[in-house]
Amino acid sequence: MADNTQLKEDIAYVRAVAERSRGAHVPAIYLLWAVIGLFGFALFDFVSHTKWVGVYWLFAGPIGMALSIWLGVRADRDTGATSRDSGIRASLHWVAFMAAGWLGLALVYADHLTWRGFGSLWVLLLALTYFQFGLHLERRLLPIGVLIAAGYLVTVWVPGYGWTATGIVLAIALVTAAFLGTSKSETAG
What are phi and psi of 5, to 5 degrees? Predict the structure, then answer.
């Protein structure tokens, strides 16, 4: 009987270590991108020239990414997460998204795509990136990827405040994902 108890304790220990090695869920990252995304998407509907949207994202994107990496590293250190590879893999995933978006500039400069269409291309890439991140690394991002894909269609075909509506839906989804299914130990840190 003592061997059975010891085996259960050993399995519980291994499970706890495995869960920590996946990295911490960091609600602050979701909230950060909810705010950045809401304002960035709404800009399309409220500024007269899409150049200002580009200027916003030129700064907000890299600053948001740097803050996200910093928050993630800090959370992993605080929770004792041991997998540095997981953090690097997650960071490279988002860097690949940004690189693909910047490569889309060639379509604009070759007159294959308008600036407004370029914005929609970013939304399509964002939907794919969220979905794949959810598929491979963090399940709670799967439905957000699907919502962003629907938002992509809105940015393409809905006149008026389609961009703002998409930003609002994205912000609500991110805020919901920040806290949905988190344990008390995750939100306490």
Answer: -65, -45
| Residue 4, burial from CB neighbour count under 10 angstroms (0-12, 13-18, 19+) | exposed
Rounded to whole angstroms, the Cα distance separating 152 from 145 reads: 10
Cα angle: 55, vertex 57, 106; to 5 degrees: 80
CB 52 within 8 A of CB 117: no
155-171: average pLDDT: 93
Give residue limits of the domains in the chain.
27-181
Distance CA 32, CA 139 (A): 19
CB 164 within 8 A of CB 41: yes
Is the Cβ–Cβ distance between 135 and 146 less than 8 Å? no
157 Cβ contact partners less than 8 Å away, ≥ 6 residues apart: none
Confidence at residue 73, expressed as pLDDT on a 0 to 100 scale: 85
Q: Say if residue 134's pLDDT is above 60.
A: yes
Q: Which token pair is 110?
A: 């070759």
What's the whole-model pTM score?
0.80
Q: What is the largest CA-CA distance in the chain?
A: 74
Query: What is residue 141's DSSP assignment?
Result: G
Which range, of 69-78, 83-92, 99-108, 171-180, averages the lowest pLDDT?
A: 83-92
